[in-house]
Amino acid sequence: MTRYFLVKNQKIVQFFAKLNKEDKLLDYYMRLIIQTFILAILSVNLAMAKVTTWYPEMKNLISQALSSQDKEDLVQTIDFHKAILKRQPNNLYSINSIAEIYGKLGQYNNQVLWAMKAIAIDGNDDLAYVNYGNGLLGLGKITEAENAYDRALKIDANSSKAIYSLGLIADQKNDYLTAIDFYKKSLELDPFFENSYFKLAIDYANLQKYDEAIGILNLLLNLNPHANNAKRMLADFEQKKMLRVAR
């Protein structure tokens, strides 16, 4: 109702201004100021009421999603993100998270579908294109995946995940030297991106450069001493190095 009278009085102010009716103009102008003030107060109160109601619940859901992800309970993490989306349907963080998790689960069709949802909301979201490309890559659509990564890099030239993903394509082509360059660049942009350490170590091992592979894994373990996969891989590469030296 307040909004209706506000619009109405704006038109009346404009009308009396054209007629040079200063007394009427002043009266309606003051009414317009008062109603603008009332509308602003009402809008703020409504917004605050919504935030006050949602904030504890949303905070709890996000916390649960992060906790279940740390525990590698990926299915439950998806459930928490979907609960968030029931309250905030356009939450890109949750949509991208779901897409990425479906990729980890090997459900590439679902990864593509959720990435497309993110792109539909924001066509300039680089992570959405990375997820889209990863899903396509999982489905064996290498050229389309590469186009998606290129699109991500046009949006953000420093997207470490897009650069990392180009390394995955190089790996599929057995071009380990090119892949290594991509993984190194990815780590320059994000030194905490663990996937790049793993892939870099594996490719050095593929080239039988075990010293380099071991060095990369030690860097990762300094960063994250609880990376059990890195510990197992390190033991494996040290054994292969010893066998190679013994020959």
Key phrases:
mainly alpha, Serine Threonine Protein Phosphatase 5, Tetratricopeptide repeat, 0% strand, 247 residues, 3 domains
Layout of strands and helices, then pairs:
Blueprint (H helix, E strand, L loop, with lengths): L1 H18 L2 H49 L3 H14 L4 H13 L3 H14 L4 H13 L3 H14 L4 H13 L3 H14 L4 H13 L3 H14 L4 H19 L1
Helix pairs in contact: 1-2, 2-3, 3-4, 4-5, 4-6, 5-6, 6-7, 6-8, 7-8, 8-9, 9-10, 10-11, 11-12
Task: Report what the structure shows.
- The chain is mostly helical and 247 residues long.
- The protein folds into 3 domains: 1-77; 90-157, Serine Threonine Protein Phosphatase 5, Tetratricopeptide repeat; 159-247, Serine Threonine Protein Phosphatase 5, Tetratricopeptide repeat.
- Helices cover 84% and strands 0% of the residues.
- The chain has 12 helices and no strands.
- It has helices at residues 2-19, 22-70, 74-87, 92-104, 108-121, 126-138, 142-155, 160-172, 176-189, 194-206, 210-223, 228-246.
- Helix 2 (22-70) runs antiparallel to helix 3 (74-87).
- It is globular and about 60 Å long.
Mean pLDDT, to the nearest integer, reads 80
CATH topology of the largest domain: Serine Threonine Protein Phosphatase 5, Tetratricopeptide repeat
Assign the CATH superfamily of the largest domain. Answer: Tetratricopeptide repeat domain
Distance between the termini: 87 Å
Could you say what the CATH architecture of the largest domain is?
Alpha Horseshoe
What integer value in Å does the Rg equal?
28 Å
* Run of helices and strands: HHHHHHHHHHHH
The backbone outline, from C-alpha atoms, is globular
What is the domain total for the residues? Answer: 3
